[in-house]
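> call design_seq(struct)
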């Protein structure tokens, strides 16, 4: 019998409390987004994609903001919170710089693991030789992963268990290309990575098309390391179906969880109840206040504009009203204006046990 998604499992030296993880979300997965997922049960959360070059050269925003791990991420608080491990995702094409960045992360943060992005399909990342460009240069990909492992080990030379290094991959560069499947084996066998997070779509299609779960199942059968499945997991039935079909060690929820942390609860507990309007507004208010804590009010006012559409999709069933409210939220100059538009009382922040 396959393991239940609620069962714990081992990722290298780590004990992960369940098999439902928050995927790395570029430009989104900061500490409060990770904390939100954990409050609803995510057994582990991965950070947004962080530049190894920016860490190596000491970029202040990167080192002090993007690498921030909040103490609350360690606490199993909230609706059904896990308090599970945190992984920092790095990207870059230079082994020496990756080694330096991994060493910095281990020495200067409380990260439990490091993930290397070798699947980002965005052109501005690929043209640097990073992300999905690694699918076309397996020797370099192995060198980068090995460098990350060496850097992490160097920073832990004084003692303690090895920090697991994982890699997130696409199935290939183009439809029909299985280079990611082949690279996964080399990364485990030659670079010693602890697990592969596998998105069985090609980089060329981004998030379109049907994931090749058959290829993912083949990888599970042949890879001597855990496979974490991601891609196309937008609701609880599709998560369970893909998990059972592939035999993966765990699943990662990504875009389907944006503005919808209840997806973790649904997958883990079978709770299909739709959140009430009050619950959605309370969750959005929590997100707003955490953004202020993270960025300060002026920056949070601008940053949160990317979040509103995810919540509005659940709040407003009338398309015309949703569009008008969305436009007003996008142009709101202050958070007090945002609270007014949403009819929220800013003084009464929702409390979570």
């Amino acid at each position: 019998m396959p393991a239940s998604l609620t069962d714990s499992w081992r990722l290298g030296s780590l004990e992960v409390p369940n098999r439902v993880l928050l995927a790395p979300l570029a430009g989104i997965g900061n500490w409060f987004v990770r904390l939100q997922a954990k409050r609803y049960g995510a057994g582990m959360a991965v950070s947004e994609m962080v530049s190894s070059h920016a860490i190596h050269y000491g970029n202040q925003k990167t080192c002090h903001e993007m690498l921030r791990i909040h103490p609350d991420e360690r606490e199993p608080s909230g609706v059904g919170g896990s308090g599970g491990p945190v992984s920092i995702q790095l990207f870059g094409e230079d082994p020496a710089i990756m080694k330096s960045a991994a060493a910095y992360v281990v020495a200067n943060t409380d990260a439990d693991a490091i993930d290397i992005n070798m699947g980002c399909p965005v052109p501005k990342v690929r043209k640097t030789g990073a992300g999905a460009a690694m699918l076309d240069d397996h020797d370099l990909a192995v060198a980068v992963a090995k460098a990350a492992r060496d850097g992490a080990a160097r920073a832990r030379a004084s003692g303690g268990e090895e920090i697991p290094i994982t890699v997130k991959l696409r199935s290939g560069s183009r439809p029909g290309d299985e280079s990611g499947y082949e690279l996964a084996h080399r990364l485990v066998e030659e670079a010693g990575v602890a697990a592969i997070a596998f998105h069985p779509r090609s980089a060329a299609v981004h998030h379109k098309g049907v994931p090749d779960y058959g290829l993912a199942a083949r990888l599970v059968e042949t890879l001597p390391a855990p496979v974490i499945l991601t891609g196309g997991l937008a609701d609880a039935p599709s998560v369970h179906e893909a998990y059972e079909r592939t035999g993966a060690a765990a699943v990662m929820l990504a875009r389907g969880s944006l503005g919808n942390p209840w997806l973790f609860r649904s997958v883990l507990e079978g709770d299909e109840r739709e959140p009430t309007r009050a619950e959605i507004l309370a969750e959005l208010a929590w997100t707003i206040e955490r953004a202020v804590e993270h960025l300060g009010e002026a920056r949070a006012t601008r940053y949160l504009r990317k979040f509103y559409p995810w919540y509005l999709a659940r709040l407003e069933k009338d398309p015309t009203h949703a569009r008008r409210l969305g436009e007003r939220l996008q142009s709101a100059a202050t958070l007090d204006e945002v609270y007014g538009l949403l009819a929220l009382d800013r003084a009464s922040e929702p409390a979570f046990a």
